[in-house]
Amino acid sequence: MYAIAKAASLISLCCVILPCLLHFAGLIGLETVKITALVGTIGWFIATPVWMSRKLPVDAAEVDI
Amino acid sequence: MTEKTSSAGGEFERQPVPDSALLGSGKFWGMYAGEHAAGTEFMIGPLFLAAGASLADLLLGLLLGNFLAVLTWRFLVVPIAMAKRLTLYYQLERIAGGSLVKFYNLINGLLFCFLAGAMVTVSASAVGVPFDISFDVPSNMFGLSNPSFTMLVAIVGIVIAVVAAGGYERVARVANIAAPWMIAVFAACGIVSLAQLDATNLAALTEGRFWSDAVTFVQSHDGEQSFGFWQIVVFAWLCNGAMHFGMADLSIFRFARHKASGWAPAIGMFLGHYMAWIAAALLLAALIKLQPDLALQTVAEGAEDVGLPGTVVANPGQLAFASLGWAGIICVVIAGWTTANPTIYRAGLAFQGVLPKTSRTAMTLVAGAVATIAGAFPNLSAQLLGFVGTYGTVLGPMGAVIFVDYYLMKKFGLRDEYATHSGTQVNVAVMVAWLLPVAVGLYLIFWKGLFAAYAVIPCWVACGLLYLVISKFTQKPSVLQATESVTDPSNPGL
After folding, report:
1. Hey, which CATH number is domain B21-387, 3.40.630.30, 1.10.4160.10, 1.20.1280.260, 1.20.58.1000?
2. Which of B41, B49, B392, B491 is the most exposed place for a label (fewest CB within 10 A)?
3. What are B34-54's pLDDT values in tens digits?
4. Which residues of chain A approach chain B closer than 8 Å at the C-beta?
């Protein structure tokens, strides 16, 4: 399950970055970039919470003022 | 002063971090990677362009400034953090006394509120784009924007404050999850902007006309301005002055097992304060080229004191939307929200420290209200370059107190951690050494027009020297004699 979610996160991140590079190279239009970035964003926020639960700094809420 | 020897929830708030809780370098790299890509970057990046910085100065100045910041973390903060393994808060309490630390926290909390206010403005600018609510920046520092935007700020501020009052952890987790995506969106915005600027080949990139044309456009509307190489270096170095010179990150690095962990801020600096700032600046350059009308100040109906129609305004929501569409809007909202939320929460804690009988929820809501009021004045967020420097000027000097206390006090025959040993709640030497240089610094910034970041290091040095000299006259010999045989377990090296 975690492996699938991680793969989905990676693909989602690629959906944000790769189309921009293709647009930079003149291969795709800006509208396509915007749509894939939105799809990647939605995918990221669905897939990533499944596997990413990085522990917070131990006193982040209390001491580091 | 009685010390609690047990850790509260494993947090080691009032005792040195034990060896069993130390962390490897990888943890710090992971943490800093997402630490410095935040809502503020959307505001700060365009301000460089708006201030007239040249592209070469920006690229090289940020490189040098961020490198100096990393060196400061590594060689100033980490050695003390690893030797003492105490939080900034607790170290200051031992040196300055509990009451003075509460006052320091109050000042810190108020500054946090203004920072959070700028983030409320940033989030509202993005929320306003789909509703066609314009972002007007009045000429007066304390002038309001148009009523629609002011209402939007109030709604966004209330939502953020209520969520912050609900607790820190959930928001912090959202921030952690969003961090890699946010960095990707920043990079994507920069790449798209370069394409929009037709800077897609080496010749165009090295010529830099896409940048100089944008600066010319800004200056033709806003008048001649300059933001030179050394201003950029000093700003990049000291914009996190409270964290490194001010030693706030002692609380983080006290867990470091190896000194090499001190290099970890490099990833935050070069992703957040290099790539993201440049990408955000390119957003404004692209908007100026493609839709110059959208980059200019409008005068919306009902706007109060919008005295500079036709000047250039960096609207973060508009910039991100023009480049990456809805993903850009979502990024600005989340970046602003995840920055504002913990900031309001921590400000609430600081206020609660001053008024311990009040509830944390009530104080967080108070902090949220202050932040929302601050967010209603768009000029405060437009002055972020100056504010960040002022923040470092006010809080940074306390780091000099810790530095002098650790390295110099015993060498000069003085008592370190004087408040602990004397039982005083206010160490007068620390209070005067902190407030005097800060008062002079603020006078020079607000009345003499000094670039705020320039004041950080002089105030830091002056504070350290004053602390040493005043301690010589104020420390009671009885305290020194009574405690000189005591071995301090948290300071084994001295």
Report:
1. 1.10.4160.10
2. B491
3. 677 787 888 888 889 988 899
4. 12-13, 16-17, 20-21, 23-26, 30, 33-35, 37-38, 40-41, 44-45, 48-49, 52-54, 56-65
